[in-house]
């Protein structure tokens, strides 16, 4: 027992939970991208390739990664790429759209719209009534087209091409186009989402599409539901972890914890939380496992306090200066190194922390590297955020 009679969940048990709930142990791998996203709640979507790589690392049949992920995103619409926590783009199960919008999006959206109107007023651009007209016209054009680029929408609504000076007279002065700023606002407002890219699955140039219709939920209830789902997938977690992942105020986190009846447990870092009834011993993975996870993977980025799966001395090689994680190599629930793809397509990896990593681990890691290479094929992958080890390995 830990402090206050609470059950203590140590690092080893947390890694066992991670292996199964994050679909990383071999026996826990999923049958579809929908299962992967449902298990993880959200896949980081800032780097388009990372979504497919995160799914592929967790599919039982990795050869289906590209086709099945594109089916889910663009044909069936069972997954959706949209703004979510911390003003970041994620891929969510479409059923979570109203939860994400009500729990997180509304607050960000109000701030972004106010900022746009302020910037336009400072530049002497047209007023809010004008912007509303343009917005309604653009949304109508998008509904007619189904999916469209900003340039295509501007052909239907030429006022989208209007420009205004941002931060005039300051060192970061620039010229903004109405379409760029307005579509961003409409995205965080839950009115539009990213559609099919113009290029391959690694392309960052997306069409826009109307957002799935969804009911408007009570923000408090939506926050409770999002927190419940995330704790089910990632618990235990500290209050600091929860604040970081959601981007909410501490009062919102505490209110949501109370609403779901979260159970307090003891962690090496202090007090943590799990969903009610989830404090009991967790079954460990049936066998040792290795994984090659992409930059911005939701497991590597899932918690703010990471010492239980990532040794502090490894971070300078694996993260960029903004705190974005690069491609990582995992062995039995710990980050032990990183990987990259060279210009000729070869997947290369390096173990940085050899504590407990012997020949069996290296053989398992090499198997995962071959598995990754087999479905990536001739596609070339360069993470959007480059890290020191990734740059070194890919050179």
TrEMBL record:
Keyword DNA-binding included in the entry's annotation: yes
Any Pfam family matching the protein: AlkZ-like
Keywords (A to Z) from UniProt: DNA-binding
GO molecular function, one term: DNA binding
Keyword DNA-binding on entry: yes
Protein name (database record): Winged helix DNA-binding domain-containing protein
Highest classification ranks of the organism: Bacteria, Bacillati, Actinomycetota, Actinomycetes, Kitasatosporales
């Amino acid at each position: 027992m830990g402090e206050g009679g609470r059950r203590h969940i140590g690092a080893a048990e947390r890694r066992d939970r991670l292996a199964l709930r994050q679909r990383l142990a071999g026996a826990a791998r999923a049958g579809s991208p929908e299962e992967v996203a449902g298990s993880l709640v959200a896949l980081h979507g800032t780097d388009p390739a990372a979504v497919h790589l995160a799914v592929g690392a967790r599919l039982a049949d990795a050869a289906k990664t590209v086709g099945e992920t594109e089916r889910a995103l663009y044909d069936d619409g069972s997954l959706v790429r949209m703004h979510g926590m911390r003003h970041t783009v994620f891929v969510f199960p479409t059923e979570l759209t109203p939860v994400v919008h009500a729990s997180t999006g509304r607050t960000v959206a109000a701030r972004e719209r106010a900022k746009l109107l302020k910037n336009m007023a400072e530049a002497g651009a047209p007023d809010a009534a004008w912007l509303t007209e343009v917005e309604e016209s653009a949304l109508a054009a998008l509904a007619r087209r189904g999916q469209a680029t900003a340039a295509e929408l501007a052909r239907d609504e030429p006022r989208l091409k209007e420009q205004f000076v941002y931060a005039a007279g300051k060192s970061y002065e620039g010229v903004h186009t109405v379409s760029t700023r307005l579509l961003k606002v409409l995205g965080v407002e839950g009115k539009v989402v990213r559609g099919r890219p113009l290029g391959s699955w690694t392309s960052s140039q997306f069409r826009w599409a109307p957002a799935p219709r969804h009911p408007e939920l009570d923000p408090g209830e939506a926050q409770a539901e999002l927190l419940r789902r995330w704790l089910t997938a990632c618990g235990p977690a500290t209050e600091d972890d929860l604040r970081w992942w959601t981007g909410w105020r501490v009062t919102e986190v505490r209110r949501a914890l109370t609403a779901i009846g979260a159970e307090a447990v003891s962690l090496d870092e202090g007090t943590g939380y799990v969903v009610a009834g989830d404090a009991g011993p967790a079954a460990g993975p049936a066998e040792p496992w290795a994984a090659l996870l992409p930059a911005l993977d939701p497991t590597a980025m899932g918690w703010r306090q990471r010492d239980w799966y990532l040794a502090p001395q490894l971070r300078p090689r694996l993260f960029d200066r903004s705190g974005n994680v690069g491609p990582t190599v995992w062995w039995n629930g710990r980050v032990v190194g990183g990987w990259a793809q060279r210009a000729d397509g070869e997947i290369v990896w390096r173990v940085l922390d050899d504590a407990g990593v012997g020949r069996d681990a290296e053989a398992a890691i090499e198997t995962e590297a071959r598995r990754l290479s087999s479905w990536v094929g001739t596609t070339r992958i360069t993470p959007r955020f480059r890290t020191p080890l990734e740059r070194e390995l890919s050179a």
